[in-house]
Specification:
Strand order of the largest sheet: 8-7-6-9-10-11-12
Helix content: 25-40%
CATH class of the largest domain: Alpha Beta
CATH topology of the largest domain: Rossmann fold
Largest sheet: 7 strands, parallel
Strand content: 15-25%
Number of strands: 12
Structural class: alpha/beta
Radius of gyration: 21 Å
Shape: elongated
């Protein structure tokens, strides 16, 4: 006997619909339909599975009169009105556990590339330049890495750094008492005093808009390498550019940009503002197109996490 209709608004890994059907749900694939196309079925659905194709606002939620849960395949929930959903008794689920390994691995890769000038040296050789002296590396084992945000991904980064023999400290404004063998819990002020490398792993919400801003960057005692694989809008790009020019930021690696659309696309790089144009030309900056959480394996991991969470709901 069916336990209700679940609509997949974005394409999941096959594991997810297969497992939901085994649990007794009817699963509908609706990867391109509009809200108007789905109006009647949204009123019947007990669950939605999605990534970021729709903004789940009050009007959308009011149309879902039988909804029990929203399952976001991934981390960010900024396109969902969580408070209104929960006021209607709708559970909002996501799967940060599914992305922790792939984002942590890219973070480490970008960190090593910055310290070893890998991208810069490669581009110079492509242009016929063989410059060993100005591409000398900095050894990670002699650096202090500061992690801002010690959740699923921040802790995964710390775990992977343990093999590099570097000092790792972490600040998280949402929690305390989390020191472990991988990282030492510190205040933001101590992190600013001692870090050589800063990697950002905080969610985006109104309180975290431009959390990495001019004031925060200028308060670091040492020039830092800055990495952001979280969300673009937690970082003030214009402030970053000014601090790169001033030497306060020695280099940066960004997998996310504040200029991205909701679906994590940038339609025309040439039309983006001047701060981005500086970043794309800078030899001490690495940019990737929001791919840290986009491994070949990650969708199955998200599916596995969400099946268990849906089962609990």
């Amino acid at each position: 006997m069916s336990t209700g209709l679940i609509i997949c608004l974005d394409k999941p890994h096959p594991f997810l619909p297969d497992q939901l059907e085994q649990l007794g749900f009817q699963v509908k694939a609706a990867y391109s339909e509009s809200t108007q196309d789905l109006e009647a079925e949204l009123a019947l659905a007990v669950g939605l599975v999605l990534r970021s194709r729709f903004t789940i606002d009050r009007a959308f939620l009011d149309a879902c009169t039988n909804l029990r849960f929203i399952a976001r395949m991934g981390i960010g929930l900024e396109h969902i009105d969580i408070a209104y959903a929960e006021s209607k008794g709708i559970a909002v689920l996501n799967s940060p556990e599914g992305s922790r390994a792939t984002v942590a691995e890219q973070t480490i890769g970008m960190m090593l590339s910055l310290l070893n000038h890998i991208n810069k040296a490669h581009q110079e050789i492509q242009q016929g330049v063989w410059d060993r002296k100005r591409n000398r590396s900095f050894e990670l084992r002699h650096r202090t890495v500061g992690i801002i945000g010690y959740g699923n991904i921040g802790s995964a980064v710390a775990q992977r750094l343990s093999g590099f023999e570097c000092r790792v400290m972490a600040y998280d404004k949402y929690k305390s008492g989390f020191s472990n063998p991988w990282a030492e819990e510190v205040s933001l002020e101590q992190l600013q005093q001692e870090a050589d490398i800063v990697t950002v792993h905080i969610p985006y919400d109104r309180d975290n808009h431009y959390f990495i801003n001019e004031g925060l960057l200028t308060d670091f005692v040492k020039p830092i390498y800055l990495l952001n694989t979280a969300r673009g809008l937690v970082l003030d790009t214009a402030a970053l550019v000014r601090q790169l020019k001033a030497g306060q930021v020695a280099g940066a690696a960004l997998d996310v940009l504040e200029y991205e659309e909701q679906a994590f696309n940038v339609l025309d790089l040439d039309t983006l503002p001047a701060p981005f144009q500086y970043l794309r030309q800078s030899p001490n900056v690495i940019l990737t197109p929001h791919t840290a959480g986009l491994s070949h394996e990650v969708m199955e991991a998200h599916a596995q996490v969400l099946v268990e969470k849906i089962r609990c709901v």
